[in-house]
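RECORD TYPE: protein structure
NAME: Putative acetyltransferase
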Amino acid sequence: MKLIKLISYFIYLALSIHLPANYRPLGHIFRSIRNANAKLFLNMHGGKLNIEKGAKISPDIKVGKNSMLGENSRIYGGVSLGENVLMGPDVKIYTRNHVIADRAIPILEQGDNFKPVTIGDDVWIGANVIILPGVSIGSGSVIGAGSVVTKSVPEYKVVCGNPAIIKSSR
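PREDICTED:
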């Protein structure tokens, strides 16, 4: 089973990620190929998935049903997406950051620390959003385009800015 996941992940990185975008002529065919390939290596909570062209993902993310990963997004290990998550293009979700505690050791040699990211159900993440390690985004929230999310977001909040702050409630 692990071999099938590894092979399907390699095929995704080598081929599927480069298939034409969904909005192109016959894009629904390319989307179907990309999604079928990804389902072989992803940890899925359910059915329907939409992965846009260029989305770089790792096999150890968890994706809820009916979620969409935006074009050219970057989502690596330790991310859990709920159901009905809508993601714009160029979203980046990070789970690792450099350790900088010891000034006597170069930052490059201090390693990194890992903090998982959790995104609830029915969340809309706008284009060019950056979500930093350890952040949780509550269900029903909206993250405005271009925001940098440095702290967790409660349920049903609309946040935007750099750093992202609560602007309103839904």
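COMMENT: The chain has one domain: 44-169.
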